[in-house]
Amino acid sequence: MRKILIVVESIDVNSSSGAKGRMSLIKSLIALGYGVKILHYTRKNIEIEGVDCISIKELKYNLLYVLSRTRRLVLRHFKVDLFSWVDSVFGFSFTYYNDSNSIAASIRKHYTDEDYIFTLSHGGNFKSHHAMLKFPKLYKKWVAYMHDPYPFHCYPKPYNWYEKGYEVKEQFIKDVSDKAEFSVFPSLLLMQWMGNYFPNFLKTGSVIPHQSYDLEIRNKRPLKLEYFDFNKFTILHAGNLLKQRQPQGLVEAYKLFLKKIPEAKQNSLLLLLGDASEHKEYLLEEKTKCSSLYCSMNYVSFDEANYVQEYASVNVILEADADISPFLPGKFPHCVKSNSPIMSLAPEQSEVRRLLGLDYKYACRPSDSTVISEFLIELYFLWKETPEKLKLNRPDIEGYLSTEFLQKQLNAMFKNEQ
């Protein structure tokens, strides 16, 4: 049995979609029979049955810790950033460096004789990767998981921007690409995209999509949700509406759908669950005009969002209106497992549309409200007349997201290690 040490920033599934994705991967590895030990920086005790799950302790009583707390307290109480220059000069904050050192100390203490070391991160942080660079003797065992483009200027338009200290961050990821024996990406397009900036990723890279293992409705009993009605045709977008994810095309399409099919005003819902602060003014105004449009505006728990996804008539995956979208959204496995039709509102060159196939019917650019409204009309009448046909039915994608495919990819990755 191969043994894996997983170094991960968070396994709290309610903290972010990234943490949910990392937990699914961890559970898939456990299900495949790997001996897994987890070092996590979640700052709370989290137990996983049958696994040695160790919470990384933050290093205190050192200069970096004192400086990081001083900066935070002064900023909080006096609204003055004493060390705004630090990120520009050193690339990262005092807190980042102290966190990296804390993770490294835990690796040093708890690493034994594991065959491989997976570093998993989420959001805009790759602290576990940063920590792993301190162990040259372990590079041959290192599997660096790259969940998103990084640094941020490597994002495709309209996302990309330059951060303070971007040159240091760029060198950091170059070091990761050059020194990790293996690299893993959740998306083929993401691996190719990052390979344009750091060519060695194309040599070391493998694709392991977000896992569908252990995805289920947490509450078997129906949740009492005021905004949800099982008896209505429900179009759902679950997930944060970032500034670049413009909901206008979808909302305008829904209004056009209601105009063309007046009866749907009484038996349909458009639900937007997740933080939508970037579009607050527009959505609040539209809610006053359309009683069947619901926007949570704020974060919705994983259990609640997953529950509604299971029962929605149509699940929407909304991406930025761009030339390319190399991301595989963390909710994609949940949408596939629900077996409801997916409406992909994304560029043609996107990972979701690549997996669905370029001939997939319910896909278009997110701003094309006329086409989206036509999709809604067709799906509505399918739901009304023959609801059993309102299914995704994609066993090929289910297989791609399975532990069997994960094992196949790991076998190919480690072929020279056997």
TrEMBL record:
It comes from Meridianimaribacter flavus. This is UDP-glycosyltransferase.
